[in-house]
Structure formats: structure tokens, C-alpha cells
Hints:
six-stranded parallel sheet, alpha/beta, Rossmann fold, 15% strand
Amino acid sequence: xxxxxxxxxxxxxxxxxxxxxxxxxxxxxxxxxxxxxxxxxxxxxxxxxxxxxxxxxxxxxxxxxxxxxxxxxxxxxxxxxxxxxxxxxxxxxxxxxxxxxxxxxxxxxxxxxxxxxxxxxxxxxxxxxxxxxxxxxxxxxxxxxxxxxxxxxxxxxxxxxxxxxxxxxxxxxxxxxxxxxxxxxxxxxxxxxxxxxxxxxxxxxxxxxxxxxxxxxxxxxxxxx
Length: 225
């Protein structure tokens, strides 16, 4: 659509911040609360990006009581909140992120986030890094269907006055790429997160960046109008 705004829509975990250690620790606490062995670290990383309950379902061992999901989710949230409150949650920014955001804004892009985090968790992360206010639209899996459904991308575009031809999703997992494909927007993968570049390309990424310095030009190249 002529005159539509240009939107760079970022994932959070594994794309903006490296949150794997906090996520793995909270998931282990949740599983322990139900008498279950913690899932392997790599299995947890593979689920990052999905909404919490869907991720837990994907990690339950065969034959496990599906009723355990709610209890695991409650303990996970509590553990994450407690760790954050006591300084135990470490989610460092990936190198070069702030400079990439500056470059995208200077080029006229609006910024947004679509994440499997809760809204409270996302805001806490952005506050911690002084990034609240940088993103026009914040889409979280507790306020819309999670990835790979297109809903968060569609809501972000509506809030930003963008459309599919002027929007790029930037993320580290196949779920991000699938969300972009379902929303009919361009998808840009990043190689520093939790899924391999080959998985991102197979899921629909047009390109995979290996450093944040590559992102602004790669985003601009994917805008079709």
C-alpha cells in the first residue's frame, strides 16, 4: 500500500537478548516442581520463541500427565520473576544491537517486537537495558496467539500503520520465520540465537545475518516498495 510505514519487527529471546540460561533454569524449576527430570538444555533452546504452555508441552516426556503443564508454567513464571527481582536473571544484549536500532531508525524504520515472552517479562527486559520507548509496538504471546501463528505480526502491522510489503520480521528461530511466512511478510534470520541457519532458511528466511552490523542493510534490501 502506498504510504505505508516501514516496520522492522524483532523477536526478543535469542535475537535481542541471550536469555537461554535464565529460561533453562526456570524450566528446570518448573519440571522439578512436578517430580519430573529437567529437559535437556538443547531441547529447551529448541522451544524458545513459542508461548510458554506450548513450549512445555513440547518438552514433556512421553506418557507424562498433561495436567502438569499448568503447574510447570506457574513455577516457571515464579522462578523467573524471583530470579529477576534478586538479580539472578541474566539476559545480555547481543553485541551491536543498539547501533543497529539506531541505523534502522535513521533510515526511517519503525521498530517493534513480537515475542513468546509475557508482556510483563518483555517490559522488564526492555527496562533493564534502557530500551523501553525504542519500540512502537510490543506483541506478546499472552495477548495474542503465539508463533508460528501470524497474529502478532498482523497486530504489529496494524499498530504501526505498516503492511506486508513494508514489514520485515527479524528472528533466530524457525517459529519466527514461519510467523512471517503466514503473515506474508519478509523474514530475516540471525545466526547468533537458538536455531541453526539451515533451519531458518528451510523455514522461509530470505537471508541469515551473522552480525548485527549486517542487519540494517539486509532489512532495507527486503522491503519491496
